[in-house]
Amino acid sequence: QVQLVESGGGLVQPGGSLRLSCAASGSIFSIVAMGWYRQAPGKQRELVATIIISNGGTTNYADSVKGRFTISRDNAKNTVYLQMNSLKPEDTAAYYCNARRLSAEYWGQGTQVTVSS
Asked: How much is the pLDDT for 65?
């Protein structure tokens, strides 16, 4: 099993920044990728960004966040971050951390991000 704990959400004004953290614990040795997804009320959960945990750290972003959000990892701390800049009201959602093995995936409990003036 893999446990994921997110932190860093909150209320921010449009144009502001937040950094989300996701700390992984448990059987993390076989995780191949981690990422962030988000779900706004009445909408389906959507991919925000992913990062490969192995060498290279290849990243992938949703078009809606490219140039504004950055995903990174600290393998020594088993933690993945999502730096969110130039936030917009449409970024408001519950953000979920995801970890993938070849045969399973795991989710965190989610952290709320609200962008509002």
From this structure: 98
| Sign of the Cα pseudo-torsion (82, 87, 88, 89, in order) | positive
**C-alpha 46, offset from chain centre:** 11
CB atoms within 10 A of CB 84: 27
Instruction: Give pLDDT, residue 29.
Output: 84
Residue written as token pair 């093995």: 101
- Side chain identity at 72, as an amino acid letter? S
Q: Which two tokens stand for residue 62?
A: 């949703």
DSSP 39-95: E-TTS--EEEEEEESSTT--EEE-TTTTTTEEEEEETTTTEEEEEE-S--GGG-EEE
Q: Give the residue from 108, 76, 105 showing the smallest Cα distance to 9.
A: 108
Residue 54 has pLDDT above 90, yes or no: no
Amino acid 109: pLDDT: 96
Give the span between the Cα atoms of 16 and 37, in whole angstroms: 20
pLDDT at 14: 98
Share of the chain above pLDDT 90, in %: 85
